[in-house]
Amino acid sequence: MNKYRSHNCSELRLKDENNTVKLSGWVHRKRDHGNLLFIDLRDHYGLTQCVVQSGTEHFKILEKLKPESVILIIGKVLKRSKETINRNLSTGEIEIHINDLEILSESKELPLPVFGEPEYPEDIRLKYRFLDLRREKMHQNISLRSKVISFIRNKMIELGFMEFQTPILTASSPEGARDFLVPSRLNPGKFFALPQAPQQFKQMIMVAGFDKYFQIAPCFRDEDGRADRSPGEHYQLDLEMSFVEQDDVFSTVEPIFFDLFTKFNKGKKISKAPFKRITFKESMLKYGSDKPDLRIPIQISDVTDIFKSSEVKLEIFKKQIKKNSIVRAIPVKNVKDKSRSFFDNLNEWAKSEGADGLAYISLVKSKESFKALGPIGKYFSEKALNELMKKCNITDGDSLFFICDKQKIAEKISGLSREKIARELKLIDENVFEFCWITDFPLYRYDEDLKKIDFSHNPFSMPNIKYEDFDKVDPLNILAKQYDLVCNGVEISSGAIRNHIPKLMYKVFSKVGYSKKNVDKKFSGMIKALSYGAPPHGGMAPGIDRIVMLLANEENIREITLFPLTQNAQDLLMGAPLDASDEQLKDLNLKILKK
Fold first, then answer.
1. CB 300, CB 459: distance < 8 Å
2. pTM, whole model, 2 decimals?
3. Which end of the chain has fewer CB atoms at under 10 Å, N or C?
4. In what order do the strands lie in the sheet with 435-439?
5. Distance between CA atoms of 371 and 381, rounded to whole angstroms?
6. pLDDT recorded at residue 150
């Protein structure tokens, strides 16, 4: 028999009545009923109620013992009386009468409670993360993460993928974020970079002739933290396949996600394969975002042409349109019972987000025609109203919100407004996981700060244009075989069919200012590999953290991460980052210049 336990704290049932058992765990909670002391004993698996009578040596010891101390008890399994059965506990029909006791480890006064799960300041929770992780919700989240990773790993192996580990110390790569650099002791003055993603290595695995690769890959990016993004590191399901097109990747991945979310979804509905496909252009128009939440029953429309016509007399919009602004309309159904403050508050909110405001009209039926109420209602002819009704699918009792601005701002504000309105009116179905693919991303974007063309997504993606036609088209109009997988407004993964043709790779990089010499120097391994016969290949990299966030119904990534950093990229538990000692700096040929 195990020295510390015959059973865990979730195992015992009525069938074990009168058996003598041995349990070990943490003192979760104590309840003193005068002549009896009840102890809820907790381990990784669950809780068991234990009881000791007053007047005994064990009673005196347990009475003084602080919560979260670790004890071993030996006792008899007894049936609880009918009125004391706890139906919320798997062991709720029994309790253990303590006959013997050993204190394995005493706890000091707790800096935060484990029982009760109250909200506590994040700095305290992260500084004492080992205590925070004992709390039921956190323990379940981290256990869920482990189960999700195991499920994914088994699925990938079933599908014939081979698991490989790519290097952690590597060269810098343009993945869109700052690198973490590691100084080389043996090569003074030179630095490794921690991988932002195993992008180049996984492509070279395909060039090496392995057909399907995956790993649960750690990735490192020196970027600011957000609710859905860790500031230092994250994990992703990195996968790549040879001799595939976009449809092949989709048909492989969709069943994995359907099965994964079916197993861990807690009763929610899930999109069935094939998942909906939306082009980037369509997504930015209809949803104002490239990661649309399809649970929201609102679609945005472009109504610039209607506002340009003589049927609308709103001069302030017409002047903006002449300066290359556009007009987007956000329809809202059945809000005739909403007060003026609802509309005014949305207008003020839009201003706080950087817009000039949200204009609006409300439709009411008057005999056989419709009237537009609201601050700008008088500027629309009957014909203009009919056109708006048809285009935006609105009728009596509905409203339209308008944003007029440059395309980038109009898309952003209309998308945020769609989400804001949906939350205000409680239009989001919380019992659904809605998946979709966003496809056909632009290969390039114009960087307003640098005043130059740059990559909009992954630079190693295959352009949706032939080599011969590449110079005949405005680079900003070139699309790529890039795609994102989105669920409930969260980008779970990005991916692409890769550019495996060296001469096309040089051409693609030339548009952002890279010479052939620059490409050969910066991506020597990749370009060399592609020059010796590379298969067409593609893949993607779903984020483990965001998947678990969705399944756990958490809004902050730190709630599903074992030992996360703070928003400022600090490890409060271990005290990192730390100053380097003089000896360490000397070994690395480094000197710290203090400001």
1. no
2. 0.91
3. C
4. 162-163, 212-220, 233-242, 537-540, 490-497, 482-487, 435-439, 276-279
5. 9
6. 98
